[in-house]
Amino acid sequence: MALYELLRPALFRLPAETAHELGKLALRTGGATESTRRALRYAYGYEHPALEVELLGTTFPNPVGVAAGFDKNAEVTHALAALGFGFVEVGTVTPYPQPGNERPRLFRLPADGAMVNRMGFNGHGAERVKDRLETGGLPPRPVGVNVGKMNTSNAEEAIEDYRRVFDRLYPYPDYFVVNVSCPNTPETFDQQSPEHLRAIFETLEDENPEEKPVLVKIGPDAPESSILELLEIVEQFDLDGIVATNTTTARDGLTEDPREWGGLSGKPLEGRSTEVVRLLAANTDLPIVGVGGVDSAESAYAKIRAGASLVQLYTGFVYRGPSTASEINRGLVALLERDGFSSVEEAVGADLE
Ligand SMILES: Cc1cc2nc3c(=O)[nH]c(=O)nc-3n(C[C@H](O)[C@H](O)[C@H](O)COP(=O)(O)O)c2cc1C
């Protein structure tokens, strides 16, 4: 039995956010020096040429990344890379520090392999994240920065928020993600409205001299027509891809009492997020990053076959522990071989044909 399986019952007796903080402490220790990172890579690393993905102007050593929210403040980026994740998305980073919602705000639903969170963009702010990325350096694999707004900002202020985070962190990541899909921040306006999206993308276009890839992260709850409308705007502004999806406010398919409000992640989201990936892939050639309920090679492969060039996970990592990335990657290689694909890239969108 893996060590994490032995520790998990004790961790799961703690409040979810306390367990998360303990996990991060362990990861901070694991990622602290080159020799501890080497030890993690030795224990958990897995490489295979079939897993490499050329995308967004860079090489992803494998398609399995850490979704936004886990490493909000760039504190454990090195450790996550050393655990074998192909890339790490830092953030959501807001322009200034903010405490987020009151605790408790993170809940596990173990019988459903799910979590509900209403963290509300708690974070250290762009300046501290910048310092960390500057002094700690970047891991030897792609890093994205997910950009958000302050909870108190109105539509106009939000544009300035995105611009500020983008500007402060511009030199560091391989790509940026504009997050317009957090379901648990207090909203006074529609973040995914066409007018708002146009205003954000126009502003960031002017702030992007090196033409760094900019993606947008969308939610799973909008109707098909709105998702397709958003896709049109994304193409109009020459964005570089779409991250699909964020958490859902729906509560379908749960066996546990979902009394807490917030965004639902994990297994119950898997089907819907894969559907959104498929809808997007059927309507665009833009790269898609599939996220929602990925916790195994099979679930990662389903997103890839539906059209995702890369996948990400958060909840699956909480349930599966430090060997998650290497297990998924090993399994992916076996599934590719089984189906006669020589690489992940060849399998992208296989179910659409
Ligand atoms: C505790 C928690 C915090 C999250 N914070 C963010 C965030 O700050 N920004 C963001 O774009 N997504 C955030 N997410 C959403 C994840 O990135 C992901 O889109 C979602 O959880 C679905 O993936 P999963 O089923 O693998 O967890 C968060 C998710 C969880 C569970």
**Contiguous uncertain segments of 5+ residues:** none
CATH class: Alpha Beta
How is the main sheet built? 8 strands, parallel, barrel
Q: Level of helix content?
A: 40-55%
CATH topology heading: TIM Barrel
CATH superfamily, by name, is: Aldolase class I
Helix tally equals 13
| CATH architecture classification name | Alpha-Beta Barrel
Please report which band the strand proportion falls in: under 5%, 5-15%, 15-25%, 25-35%, 35-45% or over 45%: 15-25%
- Distinct ligands, ions and cofactors found in the model: flavin mononucleotide
Q: Topology as H/E string?
A: HHHEEEHEEEHEHEHEHEEHEHEHHH
End-to-end Cα distance, whole Å, is 40 Å
Q: Please indicate the count of domains.
A: 1
Q: What's the Cα radius of gyration?
A: 19 Å
Polypeptide structure, described:
By secondary structure, the protein is of the alpha/beta class. It has one domain: TIM Barrel (Alpha-Beta Barrel). Helix content is 42%, strand content 16%. It contains 13 helices and 13 strands. The strands form three sheets. It has an eight-stranded parallel barrel, surrounded by four helices. α6 links the parallel β7 and β8 (175-179). α6 runs parallel beside α7 (194-206). The longest helix has 17 residues, at 267-283. The termini are far apart. The mean pLDDT is 92. Flavin mononucleotide (FMN) binds next to β6, β11 and α11.
